[in-house]
Amino acid sequence: MIPGRFIALVYHDVHPEDAFSYGRLGRSATMYHVSHRAFRSHLDVIEGAGLRCLDEAAMRDCLAGGRTRTGPGVLLSFDDGWRGAVECAAPALAERGMAAFFFITTDFVGRRFFATADALRRLDPSLFTIGSHGVTHRMLSGLSSDAIHAELADSRSRLEDLLGRPVTYLSVPGGATDRRVLDIAAAVGYDHVFTSALGMNPTADGRRGIARIGVKQDTTPATLRRWLTGDVRRERARAALLGVPKRVLGMRTYSRLRRLLLGEAVGREHVFEP
Fold this sequence. Notes:
The chain is built from 10 helices and 9 strands. It is α/β, with parallel strands linked by helices.
């Protein structure tokens, strides 16, 4: 059954315990991580709402207008390739037959806190779709065209070599996309692009602009229920306010200022460089 629209959620890591140490990693990264217990409660909310988690085929059909039922659906995605997403979240999803998309930053594979190549190969392709999240997680819109091409082509090639199957889905790191990024992504071979825009899908950009909302460690079941109805007005208002300094300062400067305000200027390890 294909819904006429869907909300897409983006998770990052799902750690096994309520209190989990990431060492010197800063809150700018870990605020988007949830515990295994919280994640399972989110799955309970989704099941309670009677929503289907869209797989690759259902998402494509929905975006193409192939609705066979009224009401929304939900799409689950995971960015970066964190170990807990693959080793904790994926088994919890498989228990319930819930599909999801995993977007992998290829330079992170096998690093501390991130999934290994073998773990990625073990993800069930009938439930889980793997896509690219770039090579280095740099903000693509701030790079030269040649650098964008290298990030997108190299990450796709590495993932296809690792998995032995085509990779045609892209999640843009930090949501830093523009027309140039989209055109290069299409030229490289990606036919669906996930962004950080907020809203229900399909958006006006269709498969080249799949909107998502980021789940944080403080996201409550009540908030999740509101999102599942398509109500993201509060989050869109906040994003509009934050969009002003991002445009004025640029993503690189904004990211560094954000770390400073979070007390991460010194003594912290930064996984993501702007």
